[in-house]
Amino acid sequence: MLTKRQNLLETIRGGNPDRYVNQFEAFASIRGTPFVNHNPSPSRGQMNVVNAWGVTKSFPENVPGPFPVHTPDKIVIKDIAHWRDYVKVPNLIFPEEEWAPFVEAANAVDRNEYFAMVTVVPGIFEQCHYLMEIQNCLMNFYEYPDEMHEIIDMLTEFELTYAEEVCAHLHPDAILHHDDWGSQLSTFMSPDMFREFFVPAYRKLYGCYREHGVEIILHHSDSYCATLVEDMIDIGIDIWQGVMRSNDIPQLLEKYTGRITFMGGIDNADVDRPDWSPEMVTCAVERAIRDGSRRYFIPSMTGGGPGSTFPGVYDAVTAEIARINQNL
After folding, report:
1. Global pTM?
2. Closest by Cα among 180, 270, 281 to 222
3. pLDDT tens digits for range 58-73
4. Beta strand segments in 194-308, E
């Protein structure tokens, strides 16, 4: 029997996996970095927590995660033409003693069985709209393209520095990078606009991780992004995590097989709900398996990591995939 790590490699490289990869089973998360400790984020139920960028976030009950608060008084960039007056880039250089517990956690991972994984959130696009509110952000791509390029360049340099610090201290095998690029039905911008503003930034960023020894790059976007898959391949994504059913997964597999792996197919909206039941989970998992394949596809909930909003859902999905694997 293949280890979890071996089975994932066989899956994404078109080899001979002996079972479906079961959600995030092949990844051991290294939880946190010194910057995470210095960048406050609300826990479930907490409201109006201000982070290191000056962004105010809240985490209401029964939602998947914390979200920025964009009442007019809380928007960071109040005038895009003078954005430098409002943005203070956080520090990323910390003493070795602050890295020590995270280094210890990274060294404790059994890397024969798992990929040691660091999660980075938010991504470059999300950080843009965190700083200026999403409607303002999308309008600024049209009305203030020069300033948006400047902001994206600033955020890219920040992320490159973070990547170098993370890799130098933790030596991760995998990166799970969050950046939602669309809604359930469409991308937030045209493919041409995405290529102009974000492809060069992500090509640099994911190239940096690769140069520093990261073997697997997962990008989380639980949205419709079927029109951006060619760009995902271009910037070096190995696994698109969060693929919702609206993307037509069978068509994606037919078109891009061998070039990228799709992880998802079990929409959180279908199962991660207060009235969830084992029957719902069985239906959603079996549908995902039918739509997918054992190569270049990983059945998973579409949320951006192991866990669920409502207790028991993620474990039930894991158990159902395990049941199917036992009967292969």
Report:
1. 0.97
2. 180
3. 999 988 999 999 999 9
4. 216-220, 239-243, 261-266, 297-301
